[in-house]
Design brief:
elongated
């Protein structure tokens, strides 16, 4: 597997993180610091899960295939519902986004990377090659997530989006969660 194939896998895996980052970026509570933490979390967990999946290989592929996607989908769905509920609320009180949420979402958008590591990256017998290719996937995901936050920052300036950002972000997260659960 060459650089082009690994990069294509990285883009495919990073698109979920891009979508979640785009919807999270619509939230007014997301500062540059929080966006950077999300970028680091999403990129790290994509790298980590591809690497671990490649190390462990086919053994777990039989046992852990659909369950992580369902669990990750449920968590993203719940975050989407909470974000949607905040959009319904007229309060201007914004609760703090905790590091725990950042890490949990990083794990949830990266569950499919574990499966890809199990099924596709187990061919790399040299740990150095597996490490290098996993790093590429993580950097691509971090880059796509960063782009999502930049794009959402500009989208937030549109009056309609500014007014209904929590609704839109919540709906997007709900759809991602349902996609992970059922597809």
């Amino acid at each position: 597997m060459g650089l082009i194939e690994v990069s294509a896998i990285g883009v495919a895996l990073g698109l979920d993180a891009f979508g979640v980052g785009l919807s999270l970026g619509l939230d007014r509570r997301i500062t540059k610091k929080l966006a950077l933490l999300f970028v680091i979390s999403f990129g790290f967990f994509q790298y980590f899960f591809v690497f671990i999946g490649g190390l462990v290989g086919n053994f777990f592929n039989t046992y852990i295939f659909a369950i992580p996607n369902v669990i990750g989908g449920i968590i993203i769905l719940l975050v989407g519902i909470l974000m949607f509920k905040e959009g319904l609320s007229q309060e201007e009180k914004f609760p703090r986004i905790h590091l725990t949420l950042i890490f949990i979402l990083g794990i949830c958008v990266s569950i499919d990377a574990l499966v890809v590591g199990f099924s596709s990256f187990n061919i790399f017998y040299l740990k150095e090659v597996l490490f290098k290719n996993s790093i590429i996937v993580g950097f691509i995901t971090a880059f796509l997530t960063g782009c999502a936050f930049i794009i959402s920052k500009h989208i937030r300036k549109v009056n309609f989006v500014k007014e209904y950002a929590e609704f839109l972000g919540g709906i997007i997260l709900i759809l991602f969660g349902l996609k992970m659960i059922f597809l």
